[in-house]
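Progress note, sequence design subtask.
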């Protein structure tokens, strides 16, 4: 049989057979820089408390991790992708194309996206509308779109400090960016009334096209140097702020809480970000954290099932677990996740 005539399913079976025959004994994990410190803590504890090698945990970003997960089945592919945003249909389609047909979605808890600046800097009390007004490529003046010419935060809102706008935000490959775009930029655009102006001026062929065009205009950010994408992890953002004392950066709550000696956090809608305000639903910019498991590797790669059960155990992910001490907001539905992991339940269609 020629290679060109071998079906994807046949290739998957061959890969799985090879995997079973010569499985590696160390878990391979990649993905989100936000989930990375939690996964590292769990991996080290796992290596210390189980008769399996300590898993290898790498970063690279949520999207990159999910892409690696979907490369195929076999010991040359990773077992788990960490993600600070939910898997996309395009990821699922890529997985299916490469013979990865069952994926387990494991929600480990919640995190907040915070705005923080140098510890000795000014206090910031932000709203999504403020952030959008500072960073958007266009704002609305006199009922029409116009180029954003704001120079200082006080130009956007007189109650904010009169210092130059400079924001270091997550790059587009980060799961954090998706939540930032949706919960801060698009929300701020709508709160400011700009979305309705863009929608009314849209030339889209139908209502869906008009809404898409309006949302895209909301998400278009300035290119004049005041909004800077950071493609590295939060340590790069921190170093940028160390070199630019009046800048604001976007961080995960847990990273901020580990750097309170260097950073001052902003309120959002008057709420201070914390484990308590996120768990109560008071802080407006929070997001669930996940990892995705290649089910075909369970029972083949030693320790995979044990690792994911350990990760979502009360001792790790529970309210009094080890991860809560590092800023993870426990999931109130953790028991349901534990049951799904025990049953090896694959995720259903996205909704």
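Output:
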């Amino acid at each position: 049989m020629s290679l060109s005539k071998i079906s994807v399913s046949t290739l998957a079976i061959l890969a799985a057979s090879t995997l079973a025959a010569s499985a590696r004994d160390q878990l391979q994990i990649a993905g989100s820089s936000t989930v990375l410190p939690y996964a590292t803590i769990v991996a080290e504890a796992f290596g210390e408390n189980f008769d399996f090698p300590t898993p290898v945990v790498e970063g690279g970003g949520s999207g990159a991790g999910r892409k690696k997960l979907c490369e195929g089945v076999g010991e040359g592919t990773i077992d788990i992708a960490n993600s600070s945003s939910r898997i996309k249909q395009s990821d699922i389609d890529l997985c299916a194309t490469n013979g990865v047909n069952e994926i387990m979605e494991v929600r480990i808890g919640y995190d907040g996206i915070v705005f923080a600046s140098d510890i000795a800097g000014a206090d910031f009390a932000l709203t999504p509308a403020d952030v959008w007004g500072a960073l958007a490529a266009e704002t609305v003046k006199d009922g029409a779109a116009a180029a954003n010419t704001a120079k200082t935060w006080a130009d956007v809102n007189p109650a904010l400090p009169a210092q130059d706008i400079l924001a270091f935000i997550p790059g587009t490959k980060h799961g954090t960016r998706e939540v930032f775009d949706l919960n801060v930029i698009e929300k701020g655009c709508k709160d400011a009334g700009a979305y309705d102006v863009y929608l009314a001026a849209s030339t889209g062929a139908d209502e869906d096209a008009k809404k898409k065009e309006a949302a895209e205009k909301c998400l278009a950010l300035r290119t004049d140097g005041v909004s800077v994408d950071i493609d590295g992890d939060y340590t790069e953002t921190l170093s940028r702020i160390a070199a630019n004392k009046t800048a604001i950066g976007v961080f995960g709550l847990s990273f901020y809480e580990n750097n309170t000696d260097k950073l001052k956090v902003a309120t959002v809608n008057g709420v201070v970000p914390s484990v308590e305000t996120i768990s109560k639903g008071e802080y407006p910019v929070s997001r669930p954290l996940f990892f995705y498991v290649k089910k075909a590797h369970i029972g083949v790669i030693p320790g995979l099932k044990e690792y994911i059960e350990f990760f979502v155990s009360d001792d790790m992910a529970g309210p009094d677990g080890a991860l809560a001490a590092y800023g993870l907001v426990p999931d109130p539905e953790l028991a349901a996740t534990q049951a799904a992991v025990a049953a090896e339940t694959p995720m259903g269609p996205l909704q």
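Residues 40 and 57 are 6 Å apart (CA to CA). Work on this subtask will continue into the next period as scheduled.
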